[in-house]
Amino acid sequence: MVDADQTFVIVGGGLAGAKAAETLRAEGFTGRVILICDERDHPYERPPLSKGYVLGKEERDTVFVHEPAWYARNDIELHLGQTVDAIDRTAKTVRFGEDGTVVHYDKLLLATGAEPRRLDIPGTDLAGVHHLRRLAHAERLKGVLTSLGRDNGHLVIAGAGWIGLEIAAAAREYGAEVTVVEHGQTPLHGVLGPELGALFAELHREHGVRFHFGRRLTEIVGQDGMVLAVRTDDGEEHPAHDVLAAIGAAPRTALAEAAGLEIADAAHGRGVVVDERLRTSDPDIYAAGDVASFPHALFDTRLRVEHWANALNGGPAAARAMLGQDVTYDRVPYFFSDQYDLGMEYSGWAPAGSYDQVVIRGDAGKREFIAFWVKEGRVLAGMNVNVWDVTEPIQKLIRSRAQVNTENLANPHIPLEDLIP
Ligand SMILES: Cc1cc2nc3c(=O)[nH]c(=O)nc-3n(C[C@H](O)[C@H](O)[C@H](O)COP(=O)(O)OP(=O)(O)OC[C@H]3O[C@@H](n4cnc5c(N)ncnc54)[C@H](O)[C@@H]3O)c2cc1C
């Protein structure tokens, strides 16, 4: 069959889906490209939602992946505000929208992303309980933070992960009172471990954030539909006018599961299982972005990565694989965050328990340093904090799997490049 007779369908119009559509056209695919998304907004990038956009420093129209006219210009058939609710793998069709429209696919990409986990406690239906995933959530939160700042109101954040901390920083910039309740002993415990987590706790405390570590919310107390306070599992009550549930995200696998595709177990992120070409257990169906669980030879495990760069690169990689190109998706995981005047980038993968040493290069006290997570002399991950243009050598070091002298690694006078074999 020639290209022009083929139909490629993409489910999910986030960064991975939009970038996959772009790559199909950039690689010269002349068949139909159908992109279906349940959101009404054109595909957009989510990082500004907890940073520049919620702070009112970035305009709404800067978050979109492409300008609206780009889709028609590139002959991408865009169906917004439409949910795909079934895949028929035998007939090779997907069904979407309220009228149950059915379209045939030759290749299908699942780029359905993730959705915020919900608190399972009394009071979550109160008007002042928020989540943050979508542009509409960020718009609402921006209004909430503005009024909390103006009225000296209290925001309670459940979860000291990236989104919880970024919103804590934004809320403090607006002048709101902020309390963070986190069941771990430090922020970002699972990603950074206790050593670097403590640094983030210190940063936020300096800016007036209150933390309750080792605690969980047990109830959101309300009156007349409004939030009044929260209760924690030590029986304490904390004042609150609004609550943000930032307790992580779950991959949107329901569609894949219902279609009988293989899903990873909890230890591997519960995403849709794909191979190194991002192909699922069905050879005509691919998955990329937050929803995919892919094998990573470098770390000798299956990873599900919920970060911008993985959607940015994974969508295009899947598109090339769908076109029959030889693809091995083995990017070093990368993400970034901005909180107050701290900017950081993290490359690699070193969950708690996987490393035996954290090596600091630079001045952690001044928050200008690179941290390396090291196991038996090999660098698993590196995080540069307020130090820039070092991602490439950090990723090369990780990729090299070389044994490094940790004294040299800690010495900022020895260029990182000199440590790469
Ligand atoms: C507030 C926030 C801040 C972030 N900040 C950072 C950051 O600073 N750095 C970083 O590296 N990463 C950050 N991330 C993570 C990053 O945004 C995600 O990794 C990225 O959005 C994943 O892209 P995706 O295309 O895989 O999924 P998504 O962006 O989730 O897009 C999936 C789309 O598919 C739609 N969809 C799902 N199911 C269906 C269906 N059945 N039918 C139709 N449509 C469907 C969804 O509604 C959604 O629109 C942040 C995320 C959030 C929420």
Walk me through what this model shows.
With 421 residues, this protein is of the alpha/beta class. The chain is 24% helix and 30% strand. The chain contains nine helices and 26 strands. It binds flavin-adenine dinucleotide. The site of flavin-adenine dinucleotide has 36 residues, from helix 1, strand 2, helix 7 and strand 22.
Summary, kept brief:
By secondary structure, this protein is of the alpha/beta class. The chain contains 9 helices and 26 strands.
Low-confidence stretches: none
Q: What gap, in angstroms, lies between the N and C termini?
A: 47 Å
In total, the number of strands is 26
Strand order of the largest sheet: 3-2-1-7-19
| Percentage of residues in DSSP E strands | 25-35%
- Can you summarize the main beta sheet? 5 strands, parallel
Q: List the quaternary state of the chains.
A: single chain
**What is the residue-averaged pLDDT?**
96
Small molecules held by this entry: flavin-adenine dinucleotide
Number of helices: 9
Percentage of residues in helical conformation? 10-25%
Shape label: globular
Q: Rg to the nearest angstrom? A: 22 Å
